Fold:
Amino acid sequence: MTKAQAFLVKGVNAPFKLADVELDEPLENEVLVKITACGLCHTDFLIPAGIFPSPYPCTVGHEGSGTVLSVGSAVKSVQKGDSVLLSFAHCGECGYCKEGKVAACKEFYERNFGRVRNPSAGARPVGKIVGDGTEVHGTFFGQSSLASHCLVVESSVVKVPSSTDLSLFAPFGCGLQSGAGAVLNLFQPKRDETIVIFGLGAVGFGAFWAAVHLGIKTIVVVDLLQSRLSLASSQGATHTFLGSSASLVADIHAATGGMGAHYAVECTGVARVLRSAWEAVRNGGKVCSVGNPGPGVAPPFDINDQVNTSKSWCGLVEGDSNPPEFIPRLMKLHANGEFPVETISKVYPVAEFDKAVEDMKKGEVIKPIISFV
Ligand SMILES: NC(=O)c1ccc[n+]([C@@H]2O[C@H](COP(=O)([O-])OP(=O)(O)OC[C@H]3O[C@@H](n4cnc5c(N)ncnc54)[C@H](O)[C@@H]3O)[C@@H](O)[C@H]2O)c1
Ligand SMILES: [Zn+2]
Ligand SMILES: [Zn+2]
Structure:
């Protein structure tokens, strides 16, 4: 039994509330982690919003970092005292996992949204609220790291050097790798091709920095906030456009040689922005949805148009990355002065959690990071 403080969601539209909980002992495939920090990602808020179904009360948080306190009997990749960054979970057994395509895991949904702790134990609570004994569900993305301590499934753990700045790199576990992977793993554009990125949250900046890293000559970024466009402009964007502009699609065509971009990465999750992305690419161009509006939204274009323009569209989860390889790769880029995550993030103590959420919602901070130490 481990005492922890965790941000609990008690139901749909209920606010996050810090509560004392008692965590179970780790199962054989789990790691008990003392959390240093956890980035806030848009997806965390889809649980209190009821957009993704969840048992309540529950904990979320899926960009955690920290130190291993103890490990279950079957855990091989880390030991007590190791520094870790936390990312998404996968089963390790299915055909996709065996091919190293762990983000395509057959059980991605169950393992990341379904609160599955262990294949034989399935979904089950991770502990109880101190006082009334109500069971608490954790294991969101294999972790639920908006807490002082959490039980993490081994597949979510990425061991990093003990010298790692665990607050700075916590957000590499989801948003940044999801955007970066769309460019580095999926599109792999050539330098003389053109790319447009819609939405400059952490996901969009991940895609943008990846395009800068590849030396793409024309990098167009689109957002509703001038402050984000200005930041991207200072970091290598060649063209910046407001998403509210009536001439947006025409402006992107003009910026990309009159034909439209070779690639578009949609990082807002807004269907009408996906429509603009579709119109912004040239014939034969490719559009990727990283932004996710949640279940029940159809793509805003028709098959006839798709066939006659030879355009293609796909979705992508977690950048098709294998976190133990991809996250250290991004950290190396950071060491070379690329992926300047510090320019979009701000660290808040636990006591300022509500302010962090408010600043994120107002668009004042792109990536709030909650510090538990
Ligand atoms: N596919 C994945 O694996 C994955 C991983 C993480 C996040 N996501 C999803 O990616 C999306 C982005 O996540 P985030 O954390 O970067 O979110 P965010 O809210 O921080 O960023 C979204 C950005 O889009 C901009 N925007 C909103 N409407 C716009 C419009 N009409 N035109 C132009 N820009 C507009 C906002 O100003 C903001 O800068 C969310 O839908 C999230 O759920 C997907
Ligand atoms: Zn799998
Ligand atoms: Zn996320």
Remarks:
- The chain has eleven helices and 20 strands.
- The domain at 2-173+340-371 is CATH 3.90.180.10 (Quinone Oxidoreductase; Chain A, domain 1).
